[in-house]
């Protein structure tokens, strides 16, 4: 179980684990259910012992490709599973960005979350631009969402796959709060 | 030869390698074509316009369709790892891509076996994975925005989404973040930090600052960072020294944005159309002999 903390060998690059994340669940049976679902769907995941900092009674976590967090969470929600925590492997103290920054350009409002920005025309409630990000679903999300009404646009969490999409979802929810209040 | 590697936001777009052309508002490569929207298509279009202005051939592109599930990118990573060693590129620009560390390391291993190591430029997903892999210093130029720079500066963040709040704070000015990114070896040899003010820097500090003309709404327009990467890549591929190319590209990109008389609803194609005029105004006065 504690191989997770084994000393790195020379053949194991220093930063190689930076693309992995940990799914923490309320109990072991949820971990097993999640493991079966994710492995059956083809994800490369591993059931591991949790690092001490996030032990909360459960002695198992799932290590997963961090970049695919969004689609993994969506798959789990389809079987009514919700992780209690999702954290990167390299630092269990890191939290996802939750802070949104807002900027007004006349009748337009832009909301930024992490590396993603969404801009809405406050008069028409049309999404006029999406910028930022670096994962390949960002241009795809922009194509699907730009020029759509804020209420009718597909949500990033429904059609995106990556952490960039997750960040855009946060910005999208915030701009909806502001514009549809 | 100048190569570009990136993803097209269309799941059906095949893995393709070839010289790209600009026809009306579409990119054409072999029998395939795609709209010039934000992302890699915008970057390529800006590069093509710049090369055309300089009288140089269009870039050779390695492209694949991917909408974020990584399926296309995995195939292209494999293709690159197998075929890059046989090729000779003076400049390679890496753009929107799924950041898979192990596959990326295989591509870098392949680059290390090329007879002449190309100048390496990365933006977007490839910049993320370069840092994730601990290979940022293998690159010659990154083109981050302020948020992405904060990610480079945060030695613990595995993705911009996890950049720690104290680094994202606006009180942390760009020069401090640049210094911190170099301190932890998470930056390329040169940085072109795009934003309200553009900074060109290296490990020794800020080399130049470009903040004119000012068009604040460009921040909202998707693709303005992509066009900057396309312009600077084309200038470097044409033989311009990296820091000069970065300074020129920042001026050209800002001017093209300004000439488009943008609003926050302007689309990137409207700015790309003004790149030739901006190039003429910025580079027309320069001595371009030797490029």
Walk me through the structure.
Chain B: Keywords: Plasmid. Chain B: Residues 220-282 form the YjeF C-terminal domain. Chain B: GO terms for molecular function: hydro-lyase activity. The complex is a heterodimer of chains A (181) and B (291). Chain A has 181 residues and is α+β, with helices and mostly antiparallel strands. Chain A has 2 domains: 20-94, Alpha-Beta Plaits, CATH 3.30.70; 100-180, no CATH class. In chain A, 29% of the residues lie in helices and 23% in strands. Chain A is built from 5 helices and 8 strands; from the N terminus they run βαββαβββββααα. In chain A, a hairpin with a 5-residue loop joins strand 7 and strand 8 (127-132). The longest helix of chain A has 17 residues, at 163-179. Chain A is elongated, with a radius of gyration of 19 Å. Chain A starts with 19 loop residues before the first strand and ends with a helix. In chain A, 45% of the residues are buried. The model of chain A is unreliable at 1-16 (pLDDT under 50). The longest helix of chain B has 18 residues, at 242-259. In chain B, helix 5 (146-153) packs parallel to helix 7. The mean pLDDT of chain B is 93. Chain B has helices at residues 40-53, 71-83, 101-112, 124-132, 146-153, 165-168, 174-183, 224-237, 242-259, 268-272, 275-283, and strands at residues 2-8, 16-23, 26-29, 32-35, 60-65, 91-94, 119-122, 141-142, 190-193, 198-202, 205-210. Chain B has an 11-stranded mixed β-sheet, with helices on both faces. Chain B is of the alpha/beta class. Chain B has 11 helices and 11 strands. Chain B has one domain: 3-Layer(aba) Sandwich (UDP-N-acetylmuramoyl-L-alanine:D-glutamate ligase). The interface between A and B is large, with 56 and 62 residues.
